[in-house]
Amino acid sequence: MSEPSRPDDWPLATMAEFGPPRAGEFRTRPEDFVVEEILGFAPEGQGEHLWLWVEKRGLTTLEVVRHLARVCAVPVRAVGYSGMKDRVAVTRQWLSVHLPGQQAPDDLAEQLANCGVVVHEQVRHPRKLKRGVHRANRFSLRISGEAINDDLDARWAWLCRHGVPNLFGPQRFGPGGRNLARARAVLARGWRKRDDREGMLLSAARSYLFNELAAMRLVDGNWQRLMPGDVAILDGTASQFAVEVPDAELDSRADGLDLHPSGVLWGVGTSLTAGDAMRYERAIAERHATLCQGLERAGVKMARRALRMRLDQPRLALEEGGARLDFHLPRGSFATAVLRELIDHPTLTLPAEG
């Protein structure tokens, strides 16, 4: 079994076939990074919660939440959202605000427009919008630079055929990886809610451990195939099952991107993995004991995440001075994990620890 890679050099799936990607640029302006939430269901049209389909640029989701709470004169906890969307981007997503027995301000759209938020639709629904209920995200990204060369089409086709490592993006770890450094300190002394009210540090630690496990399997060449003792996840769903020994049918489904091997999101609980797959989890527990034990003491529940993601409805189009990438990803997956396979850019890696 390989040693885990340095965090500033987590391996690329395309490296063996194509070598390192060349330098490239992305998100030089918000219009170069367009994200649209795919909810997967429609609000019912009646209820205590007003749902808004909004477009923002230059703002984080939490900033929009605070603006909406202020305009509607409600506490921030009365506002719901499903996913956190990028700041330097044009993003469209749903928000909800609890307004039982009352109407929204007549100038709601105008006040939000003054904050840089465009309201495209308003509709009622009986329930608050909860975290993580959307089905997927639609991306339209523009890249440029030396990476727009003869092998871009081939790299893209390889990712469409074989899938992309489902790594957490560097933004999960904060600027310069500071969230991870803070997580180490907090978990070493014992996590407390007052130190991490949004759970951001717990998330950074779990994400790092997952990426380390994924990196080990990338180096060993088994990140996209099922091993004895693996837990398989059905593409695009939360459905999972233990695999004692992969057979020809399971291998064929994995090759067709219908099933993916999974990695642990560390926490309290009993892992379903066994055999060869379990060895990777044991290695993570040994090499990162402080993080693993700290997460367990914090009471975080163990979960699983697919090691690979499928690019849905992928499209690559060359345009003047660059290229446009269009694709869908399941919720919780990062477009930056796709970009790092295609371009070399300093913001796509996590700084080395030291």
What features would you describe in this structure?
By secondary structure, this protein is an alpha+beta fold. Helices cover 29% and strands 24% of the residues. It has ten helices and 15 strands. Strands 1, 2, 3, 4, 5, 6, 7, 14 and 15 form a nine-stranded mixed beta sheet that branches. A hairpin with a 2-residue loop joins strand 14 and strand 15. Helix 5 crosses helix 6. The longest helix has 21 residues. The two termini are 25 Å apart. The mean pLDDT is 93.
* Terminal-residue CA separation: 25 Å
Mean pLDDT over the full residue set = 93
Name the CATH homologous superfamily of the largest domain. Answer: TruD, insertion domain
Query: Largest sheet, described in full?
Result: 9 strands, mixed
Summarize this entry quickly.
By secondary structure, this protein is α+β, with helices and mostly antiparallel strands. It has ten helices and 15 strands.
List the topology elements.
Elements lengths: L14 H4 L6 E2 L6 E6 L10 E9 L3 H12 L6 E3 L8 E9 L9 H7 L2 E9 L10 E9 L7 H11 L1 E2 L12 H12 L10 H21 L10 E4 L5 E3 L5 H8 L3 E7 L9 H13 L1 H9 L5 E4 L1 E2 L2 E8 L2 E9 L4 H5 L15
Parallel strand pairs: 2-5
Antiparallel strand pairs: 1-7, 2-7, 3-5, 3-6, 4-5, 7-15, 8-13, 9-10, 9-11, 11-12, 14-15
List keywords for this structure.
Pseudouridine synthase, four-stranded antiparallel β-sheet, 15 strands, 10 helices, 2 domains, nine-stranded mixed β-sheet, alpha+beta, 354 residues, single chain, 29% helix
